[in-house]
Specification:
Chain A is of the alpha/beta class. In chain A, 40% of the residues lie in helices and 13% in strands. The chains are: A alpha/beta (282), B alpha/beta (329).
Chain lengths: 282, 329
């Protein structure tokens, strides 16, 4: 059954509850491994909820549908969030989430495209946007109205290939291409090691219609996605200011947020705290 | 080798001296012409380049199908990434640039964006080996070695205009990523129009039992001329043409090598990691004890200069093959 088509009006509260469910899935998955890229996943949860349960047109029963909107997760290590979203969307079984990162699991710690619903191999950072440009060009050749959403990160903007792709998107006037730039302020060696500010100005200078929002504010995300629907000859960038670990205070304040590893007892405490905040999302 | 196999080898051969005699003609832009022809019946074929359209002979396709042609500018990582994205929407992209840029600069994209997903993208790479005098920045002397390490990538090094046209059709038909070396401009015709090219198949072009020359790319033309010259001097030299570097026709190479006294390899590439290495690996794996003499580029960067001067200096000539084989004694 086709999702989000025609686009309905957004129920912000319902989308926030969806984001809560994604976070709960992620905590369960990270507990199973004792580790994971949980900070990034929790930070991007609101965006993925808005995409999969409001903005993206897709059919969970027909993933190869030619006119589907595509979502490309360029940061492959955010896979924990994608698996949660795909499970909640009915594309992979919820029960499978507990296999996250385990040997022989389809739910790798960094995405491969052999898992249903994955549109690109992320992980070698700087790969996603260019492939999004190619998909948008292909859809244009086919005269399809489908759009292409590419998530990438602030650290990933340090890869030169990101800007090769950014240049070409505006040159080809790919107005069905939307870059979701997750600025969470962390990268492998700690806080962002090479200053990327002003981020939004960079995208504007490359010819992109750019907005900058609190990436953990559901209403702002939904509004920015609505503005990005304009077929006006310009690619769209949404700069998302997100908080790593958002929604789970003990992870929000961790200095180890790029890769989080704690013992099972601590996970149980974190999950118990989280359940108290979930309310009617159960 | 059995008599029957010898006979089969002969029937596969491309005729005799008249097919590869002197005074060869040439065809202008055989790759682009073949691609433009294919484009008429294959609407899913699209073309891309990174600011080297007219230098990689893709202009006939660009002119015929401007709405299916994309020039991404000088950005080879993006060239490959965009081609990968197009392939994911069902297109069959042919992406051109120079070999040096497609390999050294875009390697991670070829490996991960294309090969890891087995996407149906064809990279067509100009200036293979020592075919430009612009020095190390432009001479793709190690591209076969680099590309060979990528799982699932098909690699073609055609000899002439006939083979380029046939190989363009074959790789368009083949599902999966391909790296094909390009000879551009007025490309000599060595093989007759009926020449059959098959991905993964070597072709025995000359029979001979003193020496067996295993050659790829433009060196096959020189190997044929050398074999003809040697025959007049009483030396019987066979020629096995190996246009597909990967998957490698190990069976044909082993069979050919087993029947000759000396094996000589000839490639427009460094003698490490390419054809010579493949032949040595094949013979060793098959327990075939032969001395292999490697003709190709040394393991060093080549200077600037006129192409004929450089090819003569570094041994990529008919004369160099003749001399090498006569020196074998």
């Amino acid at each position: 059954m086709l999702r989000n088509s025609p686009p309905g009006s957004a129920d912000i509260g319902a989308l926030e509850r969806k984001a809560g469910r994604l976070r709960r899935h992620m905590l369960t998955m990270a507990r199973g491994q004792g580790q994971g890229y949980i900070g990034q996943g929790l930070g991007i949860a609101d965006t993925l909820a808005a995409l999969y349960f409001h903005e993206l047109r897709y059919d969970p029963e027909n993933l190869a549908w030619r006119d589907r909107d595509r979502f490309l997760l360029s940061t492959g290590h955010y896979s924990i969030a994608l698996w949660a979203a795909l499970a909640e969307a009915g594309i992979i079984p919820v029960e499978e989430l507990t296999t996250y990162g385990a040997d022989n699991s389809r739910l790798e710690m960094s995405t491969l495209d052999t898992t249903p619903g994955v549109e690109v191999i992320g992980g070698s950072l700087g790969h996603g946007l260019g492939q999004g440009v190619g998909q948008a060009l292909g859809l244009r050749v086919d005269r399809s109205e489908a759009r292409v959403f590419v998530e990438l990160s602030d650290g990933e903007m340090q890869e030169g290939s990101t800007w090769e792709a950014a240049m070409s998107a505006s040159h080809f006037r790919l107005d069905g291409l939307v870059a979701l730039v997750d600025c969470n302020g962390i990268q492998a060696d700690g806080p962002v090691v090479l200053d990327m500010e002003p981020v939004a100005d960079k995208w504007r200078a490359f010819g992109w219609q750019t907005s900058e929002i609190d990436g953990n504010d559901m209403k702002a995300i939904v509004e920015a996605l609505a503005q990005a629907r304009a077929r006006n000859g310009r690619p769209k960038a949404i700069v998302l200011r997100t908080l790593p670990g958002k929604g789970v205070p003990r992870i929000e304040i961790s200095e180890k947020s790029h890769f989080f590893r704690i013992d099972v007892a601590q996970w149980d405490g974190i999950i118990a705290d989280f359940e108290k905040t979930m309310g009617d999302a159960r | 080798m059995s008599g029957a196999a010898m006979e089969a080898g002969r029937t596969l051969a491309m005729g005799q001296d008249e097919a590869v005699g002197g005074g060869r003609g040439s065809v202008e832009a055989p790759f682009g012409r073949a691609l433009a022809r294919l484009g008429q019946t294959r609407p899913e074929i699209v073309g891309l380049t990174a600011d080297l359209g007219k230098y990689t002979d893709i202009h006939p396709f660009r002119d015929a199908f401007p709405e299916r042609f994309f020039n991404v500018g000088m950005a080879e990582q993006n060239l490959v990434a965009v081609a990968a994205g197009l392939a994911r929407t069902g297109k069959v992209p042919f992406a051109t640039t120079y070999g040096v840029f497609a390999t050294r600069r875009a390697f991670d994209f070829v490996a991960i964006a294309l090969a890891h997903s087995n996407l149906d993208v064809k990279i067509v790479a100009g200036l293979p080996g020592l075919t430009t005098g612009y020095g190390g920045t432009h001479q793709a002397i190690e591209d076969l070695a680099l590309m060979r390490m990528i799982p699932g990538l098909t690699i073609i090094d055609p000899c002439d205009a006939t083979e380029i046209e046939a190989a363009t059709e074959a790789i368009a038909e083949h599902k999966g990523p391909v790296y094909m070396r390009l000879l551009r401009g007025a490309v000599p015709v060595v093989f007759e129009p009926g020449y059959r090219f098959q991905i993964g198949k070597a072709r025995r072009l000359r029979e001979g039992n003193d020496v067996g020359i295993i050659a790829t790319g433009l060196m096959t033309e020189r190997a044929l001329d050398a074999a003809d010259a040697l025959r007049k001097q009483g030396i019987s030299a066979g020629v096995l043409h190996v246009p597909t570097i990967k998957p490698f026709d190990a069976e044909a190479v082993a069979e050919f090598a087993a029947a000759v006294r000396h094996v000589v390899t000839a490639e427009n590439h460094v003698v490490v990691g390419g054809l010579a290495s493949l032949v040595v690996e094949t013979l060793f794996d098959g327990g075939i004890a032969k001395t292999v003499t490697r003709i190709g580029l040394p393991d060093r960067y080549i200077e600037c200069g006129a192409v004929p001067t450089l090819q003569a200096k570094y041994g990529l000539t008919t004369q160099a093959i003749v001399t090498t084989i006569k020196d074998l004694g």
